Amino acid sequence: LQQVFEVFRRDYGHDKPLISLFDTPVIGHHPILLGSPGIKPDASMVISYHPLSMNSNDSFPFYMGKAPHSGPDARAIHRKANEDQQTDYKTATLSGWYWKALAEHGAKTDRYLMDSMHSVTDRILALGAPEFEFPRHDLRPTVHYLGALKNPNKIPSKKPDLPVWWDEVVNAKQGGKKIIAVSQGTVETDL
């Protein structure tokens, strides 16, 4: 990566901004973003193709597949679940290796690996829409939702590809009926 940055700086100097764009689990960028010597990009952006793995006191850790707890003790329950995740043997071991690798390159963070994936960059470009995420009062302002990526090879039609039942939705809406959307999701498919 430093070789790519060196070539960029050699060819363009500081006339053009050096922007590093990478996928969330590609952590080779982390040392330079966390203080290692070398060429640091002017901006770093991660494209998050999966659920945000950032800790939040408003939700359980992302891998649990659980809806947030509700009630007056919800934040305390979520905080405890996130703390438990960080002290879990596998997570703690992986984070230990991550911290050691960072230190070998002159970098340091106190965040565990999964949280670092979304916290070391200047911007997080998340696929999807915020309305499909659990609400988080502590969501970093660096998170920007992009919606879905379009298929560049697909020739756009004049009419959108709608499901066969879509006319029922249109007719119900025109008839003044309330529409309730229910989605089975992808985590629990045996409902």
Largest sheet: 4 strands, parallel
Helix fraction? 25-40%
Global morphology: flat
Q: Tell how many strands the DSSP assignment holds.
A: 4
What is the ordering of alpha helices and beta strands? Answer: HEHEHHHEEH
How much is the radius of gyration in Å?
A: 21 Å
| Overall residue-averaged pLDDT value | 87
Structural class: alpha/beta
Any overview of this molecule?
The protein has helices at 2-12, 30-33, 74-87, 89-104, 113-119, 166-174, and strands at 19-23, 43-48, 123-127, 143-147. The chain contains six helices and four strands, in the order H-E-H-E-H-H-H-E-E-H. The model has no long low-confidence stretch (mean pLDDT 87). The radius of gyration is 21 Å and the shape is flat. A four-stranded parallel beta sheet has the order 1-2-3-4, covered by helices on one side. With 191 residues, it is an alpha/beta fold.
Keywords summarizing the entry:
single chain; 191 residues; alpha/beta; 4 strands
List the helices and strands and how they pair.
Blueprint (H helix, E strand, L loop, with lengths): L1 H11 L6 E5 L6 H4 L9 E6 L25 H14 L1 H16 L8 H7 L3 E5 L15 E5 L18 H9 L17
Parallel strand pairs: 1-2, 2-3, 3-4
Structure summarized in a few sentences:
The chain is α/β, with parallel strands linked by helices and 191 residues long.
